[in-house]
Input
Amino acid sequence: MNTKNELLQEIEQLEKELQTVGDRNEHMRISNLINEKREELSKLSLEQAHEERVTTAVGQFDQLLASLNLGGMSLREVIGGESEYQLVSIELKKVFATQADNFSQQINDLQTKHADQERASLDREEQLQRQNENLQSTVRKLQVETEENGRLLSQERLERAHAEQARDNAVKQLDEHKAEIDRLKSHIDDLRKEIAVGASAAIKVVDTEEEEREKKALAEKIRRERTVYNRDWVDPIRKDRYKAYLAVSGEEITYPWTEQSKYFVIPESEVPQFRQQYASEQQSVEPVHGVDKEPVQGSDITGGQFQKLPAPEVAAISTTRQQLDQGTPRDTGAVGSDEETPVTRREFEELKGRVEALELGKGAVA
Output
């Protein structure tokens, strides 16, 4: 069994090692060993203190018996002899030593209990300190995450502002393009009439009231077929596409937000009335045909030929197309030739095809 001094030396050596250890597991092992040595030292100290208390108490009791005065006589004289005195003294010492041992053991128990409570208090304090360190670490992590989330939120807001600015610019450009398309449509219509009139005296374009009604009916048909309800964003965050339901059939469709001007939105409550009205109008609207072309009175069609029609210059029509792309009116004087030559059926059909091609180009731009 180790003595008290040996235990103190071992604890001191282990504490020195503990200061130089870097490995966590080794640090924990040495800490546990130091705690074991301290407990052993505490028990040894209690045992030594217990023996010292009992020995001191018995020695004091022996002195008390020797100095006891009973009516002017010592205890030895009262008992009547040395041998009898020693016998009585030994028995009294045994009884006193037993009592002293019991009292000393109670003191040890109280000291041990107090030491256990103090050690438990230290352990609790260490545990609370570790918990506090863990909480502080968690708080620091949350602060870092909060700062990162704030940075991401600011970045997202900036990107959203840029996206909204790009959207506004796109809407502005779309309006400008629509205005340009309307101008080109008007210009194409003028060119179509100009070509139809200037290419051949045998063709005359007439916009009748019936033709205007048919155009309006076609526009109304397109508008009705693009009427939707329950329009909403496909992605409420990105806001780049709409989803809606066609009022005619209830079919779900999606389209970019840049095409929202092409669709007409009505409340869902008006859908039944809309479908009933659309069905009745659909039965009464006649198909829309192309532009009427009527031969000029006085022209003579014989033998599959038009007599004395001026031949159109292909280069002049090509130039007109180039000028149309540039958005500038062409020189109408370059359309035809002053020389009159007979035109065959095939040549007339080619001219007719060019005119219709220009009309289709107008529809594509629209």
